[in-house]
């Protein structure tokens, strides 16, 4: 059961975990940059065009066929809608895709759509607007106060996020970035939950919750594992309603009034290694699903209080290897 | 020969390299945060006050005495002047310090002092000013053009750095941050050189040069090793004039008119692992020096074209360990 990890970037740890469970099968990676370290820790790799280049999907399908890939998945958000839309083409050549349904992917990609979905389904979420008028009204009535946050509807890694401290800043941001998402400041603990929704049964079978202790470029670089029955139930209910499949990553807050969803990345989250080092094993659950078996739910079996801290490791490759990808 | 690494932060790789050469001796780390991952990869660790807290130096001297530390060094810039000023106190208790002379440390800490020193000693360097008047004059005469850069004289990690594109931006930056360093835009290849200046002989005995391929928070996260006799000679000459000792890190540019020094960190550089993975071994040279022996120069023996790429690894510690440092 060969595995293809698309747009693998710097996710070396995940490639290694996948190799651990793949046994004699190959773990193959792609990236559009030959300076992506995760290429070089895989069993085999391909440097491919950017996901937005013409013919990209054909290149990937060709690799799947040539390498007899049993399952593939991507690690970057812009590729998820593509995979969701082309799932049937992969299935025709015998490759499963770990991806959520197209509508779930589209919603997660657009934070405003996700917000509206949560409101419709009575899932507590962070108050958000794309029109500055109701924001001004709420501020005037005392129902809302500064600071506010503004972020692109489809952004990532905290790029182009602004903190808004006054009416004039609100005016400037709304003028300059029409349609930007405006969010209430959220006090409380920022949480991140890695979830595995079984691809056969559709049930949440594994989840790992952590409190984010410090952020760097939109991702926690220090976190502590959390065990909480209410949180587990909140996440399970949310996933049932939202229809995700496979490994996903949910950002939320624990507030005085309960939990509130901030956003979802329907792919392996950046700090999945924390979960893995605490005994969870999503790659194993995935390969089980690919072989046709469902997984039994195993929730809340890790230990609370494990602290994770990231640091920089390096991949170094000799001059010869730098020129020798499997194909272009 | 126990080793103490001060303010170890996220430098887990360096701690591991040091453990490799230390054999049965202990490698001990300190940090002011108990969330510094390098604490937990050492043989023993201490969570200590911040370097600017009263009594900090006494805490460190006490650890050196208690742990029979043969050599200590720091990984953060604000601690270097402290170590340089207190070197004799360490020597009194039998601990060597890997540190450059106080005047060399002070110069490296203040980019404007370093610039003036280079100009005085005819060492090519990036054109810099702290007074905006000569900058305006040079712009008016066509001797200088936008963009310019402004950065704090004693900053690090590219924090509070500005690119200046126009006279009005120059005016605003100079008004708001009086005394800020203004630098010419430097075209050409950005290089970074790890150097080991023997603490016994005062000679440059090892160096590793790399071209920076991509930057993240002031440090190269992708780089390629470079072999260049002219560069070696330039760095050796510079180090002789500047009087550094031990492991240092030099940022420079290769321009059409030759090399130009940008700045120096007189400590292990953040991407030293690149050098180490290519066969250099500064920790071994350091322990040799501590035992009283000098090292033979061994320059230009690594391979050019090795590419280094960083990725995030994690340290995770169980709940019990998080509460048990050796001392506070």
Automatic annotation (TrEMBL), chains A, B:
One of its GO terms (molecular function) is ATP binding. PROSITE patterns: ATP_GRASP (PS50975). Residues 115-291 form the ATP-grasp domain. Keywords: ATP-binding, Nucleotide-binding. It comes from the Bacteria. This is Carbamoyl phosphate synthase.
């Amino acid at each position: 059961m060969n595995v293809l990890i698309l747009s693998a970037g710097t996710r070396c740890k995940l490639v290694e975990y996948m190799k651990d469970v793949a046994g004699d099968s190959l773990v193959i990676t792609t990236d559009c940059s030959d300076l992506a370290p995760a290429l070089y820790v895989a069993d085999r790799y391909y440097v491919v065009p950017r996901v937005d280049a013409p013919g990209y999907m054909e290149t990937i399908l060709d690799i799947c066929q040539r390498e007899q890939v049993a399952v593939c998945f991507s690690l970057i958000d812009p590729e998820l809608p593509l995979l969701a839309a082309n799932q049937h083409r992969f299935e025709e050549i015998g490759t499963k895709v770990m991806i959520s349904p197209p509508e779930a992917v589209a919603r997660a990609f657009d934070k405003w759509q996700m917000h509206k979905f949560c409101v419709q389904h009575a899932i507590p979420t962070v108050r958000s607007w794309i029109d500055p008028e109701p924001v001004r009204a709420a501020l005037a009535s005392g129902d809302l106060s500064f600071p506010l946050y503004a972020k692109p509807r489809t952004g990532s890694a905290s790029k182009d996020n602004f903190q808004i401290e006054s009416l004039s800043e609100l005016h400037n941001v709304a003028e300059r970035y029409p349609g930007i998402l405006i969010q209430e400041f959220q006090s409380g603990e920022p949480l991140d939950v890695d979830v595995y929704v079984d691809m056969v049964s559709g049930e949440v079978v594994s989840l790992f919750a952590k409190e984010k202790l410090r952020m760097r470029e939109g991702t926690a670089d220090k976190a502590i594992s959390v065990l909480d029955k209410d949180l587990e139930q909140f996440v399970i209910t949310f996933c049932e309603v939202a229809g995700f499949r496979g490994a996903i990553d949910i950002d939320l807050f624990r507030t005085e009034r309960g939990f509130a969803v901030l956003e979802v990345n329907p792919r392996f989250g950046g700090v999945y290694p924390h979960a893995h080092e605490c005994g969870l094993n999503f790659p194993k659950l995935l390969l089980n699903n690919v072989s046709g078996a469902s997984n039994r739910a195993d929730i809340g079996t890790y230990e609370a209080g494990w602290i994770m801290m990231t640091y920089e490791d390096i991949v170094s490759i000799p001059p010869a290897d730098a020129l020798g990808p499997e194909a272009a």
